[in-house]
Design a protein that fits this description.
The structure is a homodimer.
Chain A lengths: L16 H20 L3 E2 L5 E3 H4 L5 H6 L2 E4 L2 E5 L4 H11 L7 E10 L11 E10 L7 H17 L4 E7 H10 L6 H8 L2 H15 L5 H11 L5 H9 L6 H15 L11 E3 L10 E10 L10 E5 L13 E7 H10 L14 E5 L5 H12 L4 E3 L6 H11 L3 E5 L1 H6 L2 E5 L5 E4 L1 H15 L8
Parallel strand pairs in A: 1-5, 7-8, 12-13, 12-14
Antiparallel strand pairs in A: 2-4, 3-4, 5-6, 6-11, 7-9, 9-10, 10-11, 14-15, 15-16
């Protein structure tokens, strides 16, 4: 009897080989797209000094963090990629060129209560642009292009990037004499989708102690809808009353101005005054991204502008803008919604060579030839019945099987069978390479996400 | 004053952007090569139940492991990729197709004493082939091909794969009536390179209590040298005296027989009877790989055949063969030895667009065009002096700078400057794409490792 029942911790994603191949494709698309926009990859440790990670301190983080000691060291697993970035930039500021554009795709850890679709170990896929002292608004305008490209390259079509500016919100509340209550108001307004405008109004008056007139003003403001041009025009009606508001409006106009130049169609972008993002370090543009057919999932890519990345580690003012994709959760959702393209090859090889002779020399040579041509090839090595060998190819979903018996060896050829069409051809290795490469071009043309 | 001095834990590699780009290239080459041989990627959690990871138990592992609790759970960071593989295969045996070929490249954790070039967090890059009940020797013959391809694709030339078979060693010791002492003898013989044959002989007689005749026999045996054919011929002289030895010799002959067919030249492969590998779970072929100009570094890729991967988790007999590259340490060594190709582009982009106008529309459009053509492009957004902008491109080592002023915009062109040659041309965007792509083909042609 084995001593221990093998198990994987709850909340830790561990995929079978087929889905793992899809996950690899998913993460590679993120990597490639981020790189295309001039972000450089970083890889920081998963373990850091607890003092570093908890510099900011505070509620949920402290409760959820995996913290432990080794010898004298008080250590913890990172719970996001932002704090390690802040540490990195503060440490290496002298060696980096600013604006510093980095992406990082890595696992982070949060000991949340385990439940379906919630992960304790999950990939975040972040990009950030960090300025030294200041950072031009153009960077905030470019972010929607990265989001649009990323999801489009993945194959997602029905999504929308929603953008707002915290300066507009804070400026507007200040106009109403509500600067102090802005946090509470934002949290209440955030419930709009769930509870509707009447209940929001009730909470604003009863809990937040606003006057009826103030509550009405707020409801009127967040009810502003329309095309980007219409929303911006409506916002102009509030101009010249508060400096912060005016600055935010200028920024929002700059962000929308460059959309087309950056290749983002109007259909996939909306100014939305109800977007606030909870985190208090956002100071300007904020982003959310919704799957239009699955609003219940919430934002699949969020972020925003902040003014001070690394205040706990350096006196240097490091403003930035960044976004994050919760990649493990998004992948899980796509799986659940059956939105992953099953037609893509998830087999470990394009070709499985099945030797029909005792001696494997010719089969090994054929494998070597195909591999040198860049074709992922497996040599089946076991002495099994023909049916078992074919069952192996089937189970793995390998697109091509190459038979190599006495006849083929005598002719210096292989019999290549297309497992999907059933078609079998006697081919030279050069011909086989061309055929498989042609098939791959078609097969790999598909995108990972359907819809 | 900032509250905390930013720092990274000792023994945890954290690279600057340039070296990180090299590291990415390094790991990507491993991934691509492993995939070419029909291995499927896996990604298992970094955190596992301590009970799972420590099932085998024992000395160094227990001392070095990062172990901690969260709530009631007794957890630990994985210290290798083999134990998580054993767990995975035992858990999912019913869903996998055997032979199961997987690669995994991931970080592992060992709380070793910190010293230069020793890492507590490091990448291992493993491949394994797992059989269900049995596994053909051909798999052991294919492994040197994977090793050869991997290092050759990286650019390493002066290396040698050294192979032995534990059955030959154990069979030989059994012939001498020394089956019981084989472990101690192997550990003594392992010191041959360091202390020389005379001292090994002394230890065998004094510490291991061998007779003079037995010690002489062992020294004679491990002194066998020559081409693979010569070594195999010398081994034939010991045949027909011990079954295990004969089986090992058959296996070694099978492994060497297929070398050429698998594309491994004789120059990069040697049967070496002094190779034993310390770990007691190896039962057949064992591999080491030496950098010929840096033998002091030790083996850069090792592994072997084992008969029972997952005995602690399942009754199923799961024999396998695998190898592992300690990727973080190897990368560190290559850096130290100045063996990394500095000519390869480590910049975050191929092209930096420098707008010379206030309005960025044309510059953003140019960036969008280049990116759509697959060229990594950064738009410089800050309002700085020309010299500062050029200094930025220089510091990052970006190969091309594209100037976009009133003149260029009027003509629908860009001025593209090759930062290496200094040559500057007024080009359409289509022409610029072709020129940059052509340059990339030459630039990316180089391999990561020199020599």
């Amino acid at each position: 009897m084995p001593a221990i029942t093998p198990r994987t911790l709850s909340g830790f994603m561990e995929l079978l080989p087929g889905p793992q191949q899809q996950m690899e494709r998913f993460l590679n698309t993120l990597r490639e797209t981020y790189a295309l926009y001039g972000f450089t990859p970083l890889d920081t440790p998963l373990v850091e000094s607890a003092e570093i990670l908890l510099a900011k301190g505070g509620g949920e983080t402290e409760k959820q963090i995996y913290r432990f000691s080794k010898g004298d060291a008080d250590l913890a697993l990172r719970f996001d990629l932002t704090v390690p970035l802040a540490k990195y930039v503060a440490m290496h500021a002298g060696e980096l060129a600013f604006p510093f554009r980095r992406f990082q795709i890595g696992k982070v850890y949060r000991g949340e209560r385990a439940q379906r679709g919630r992960f304790r170990e999950f990939y975040q896929a972040d990009i950030d642009v960090i300025g030294d002292g200041k950072l031009d608004i153009a960077n905030e305008a470019e972010i929607p292009a990265v989001i649009y490209s990323t999801f489009t390259r993945l194959g997602l079509e029905r999504f929308q990037i929603r953008v707002n500016n915290r300066k507009i919100l804070n400026g507007f509340y200040a106009m109403q004499g509500l600067a102090e209550q802005s946090g509470e108001i934002m949290r209440t307004v955030d419930k709009l989708d769930k509870i509707g405008p009447e209940k929001v109004r009730g909470l604003l008056v009863e809990d937040a102690q606003l006057t009826e007139a103030q509550a009405d003003e707020i409801l009127k403001f967040i009810a502003i809808r329309g095309t980007n041009a219409q929303v911006l025009e409506a916002l102009e009606g509030y101009a010249d009353r508060n400096e912060l508001f005016d600055l935010g409006l200028e920024e929002l106009k700059a962000v929308t101005k460059y959309l087309a130049a950056f290749g983002v169609p109007e259909t996939h972008f909306a100014v939305d005054l109800t977007i606030a993002r909870g985190l208090d370090y956002y100071t300007g543009t904020v982003y959310e991204t919704l799957m239009l057919d699955h609003p219940e999932i919430g934002s699949i890519c969020s972020g925003g502008r902040y003014d001070n990345l690394a205040e706990y580690y350096t006196d240097r003012q490091l403003p930035g803008v960044g976004i994050s994709i919760g990649a493990t959760r998004l992948f899980y959702v796509l799986q659940e919604q059956k939105m992953l393209n099953e037609a893509l090859n998830t087999a470990p090889a394009e070709v499985l060579i099945l030797p029909m002779t005792q001696d494997l020399t010719a089969a090994a040579e054929a494998a070597t030839f195909l591999r040198a041509a860049g074709i992922r090839t497996q040599l089946y090595t076991e002495q099994k019945k023909f049916k078992a060998k074919m069952g192996y190819a089937d189970k793995l979903g390998i697109p091509f099987v190459a038979f190599l018996g006495e006849d083929e060896i005598a002719q210096g050829k292989i019999s290549l069978k297309n497992m999907q069409s059933g078609e079998q051809q006697l081919l030279s290795l050069e011909e086989a390479v061309r055929l498989v490469q042609e098939d791959l071009r078609v097969r790999d043309n598909g995108k990972l996400i359907l819809g």
